[in-house]
From TrEMBL:
Membrane topology classification: Peripheral membrane protein
UniProt subcellular location: Mitochondrion inner membrane
UniProt protein name: Mitochondrial inner membrane protease ATP23
EC number: 3.4.24.-
Keywords attached to this entry: Hydrolase, Membrane, Metal-binding, Metalloprotease, Mitochondrion, Mitochondrion inner membrane, Protease
Location, primary (coarse class): mitochondrion
Pfam families: Peptidase_M76
Name of the encoding gene: Piso0_000546
Family of this protein: Belongs to the peptidase M76 family.
Keyword flag Mitochondrion: yes
Function: Has a dual role in the assembly of mitochondrial ATPase.
Lineage: Eukaryota, Fungi, Dikarya, Ascomycota, Saccharomycotina
Provenance organism: Pichia sorbitophila (strain ATCC MYA-4447 / BCRC 22081 / CBS 7064 / NBRC 10061 / NRRL Y-12695)
GO CC, alphabetical: mitochondrial inner membrane
GO biological process, one term: mitochondrial proton-transporting ATP synthase complex assembly
Length: 234
């Protein structure tokens, strides 16, 4: 989870008809973009923005339906919801929100507001399961270990644990992304990569170099801590 002060929902809710989002013009722009024929940066940004807006109704509905399913049937989500509750937390359906996010993140946790799921960046319900479990680990850590996001080591540790325990770094996912090379190191490499990106985005961090040093300094102890799970399946 990144510092939630840096994560804000996009206020764009107006999905009224736009002639550029349908018919022949939409198809032409889509084809140009997918074939790499669009070189103008503003045109690329406009296409990406318009594409997300076009997809919003479907994405939001899919996110809400996936969330309801996970809260009823997902072993990892139900398990983490239970352990957050045991720590005195109050994460429930009313404060887990699907919304549009203006950056390339899947979700976020805020101790005062709850959990945000970024419907415009969630690929499918299994991706949603990983993201929700990730954010529930942050909620658990915040309550269990009194996490202070101004402390970069605290931030790094909860990111390491969330990526490890959520399933998002499972080895098969990494093989699909990067191939079989370095098979034995894929799980840890994924966790470190995600943690570094998150810590680097913390306003207290000077950048990627400091983030990498902080993550390395706490990695082994945080990686070895699988609470509340007994063990991790890769």
């Amino acid at each position: 989870m990144e510092d939630t002060s840096k994560r804000q929902a996009n206020g764009q809710n107006d999905i009224s008809a736009n002639p550029d989002l349908s018919g022949l013009e939409w198809w032409k722009r889509n084809l140009k973009y997918r074939l790499g024929l669009t070189t103008d940066e503003k045109e690329k940004q406009k296409f990406e923005h318009d594409y997300r807006i076009k997809q919003l109704p479907k994405q939001c509905t899919t996110c809400e339906e996936g969330l309801d399913w996970m809260l009823k049937y997902s072993p990892s989500v139900i398990f983490m919801m239970d352990h957050v509750k045991k720590q005195g937390g109050n994460i429930n359906r009313s404060n887990i929100k699907c919304d549009v996010c203006d950056d390339l993140k899947g979700g976020g946790f805020n101790p005062d507001l709850g959990i945000l799921l970024c419907s415009n960046w969630i690929r499918d319900k299994w991706h949603l399961e990983d993201i929700l479990t990730h954010e529930l680990v942050h909620a658990y850590d915040y309550l269990k270990f009194n996490v202070d996001y101004n402390n970069l080591k605290h931030h790094a540790c909860t990111e390491i644990r969330a990526s490890m325990l959520s399933g998002e770094c499972r080895i098969w996912n990494e093989i699909k992304k990067t191939g079989f090379g370095g098979f034995g190191k894929k799980f840890q490499s994924c966790i470190k990569r995600r943690a570094i990106l998150s810590v680097a985005a913390n306003p207290r961090c000077s950048g990627a170099e400091e983030a990498e040093k902080v993550v390395e300094s706490v990695f082994q102890s945080c990686f070895n801590d699988t609470r509340p799970f007994e063990r991790v399946y890769r």
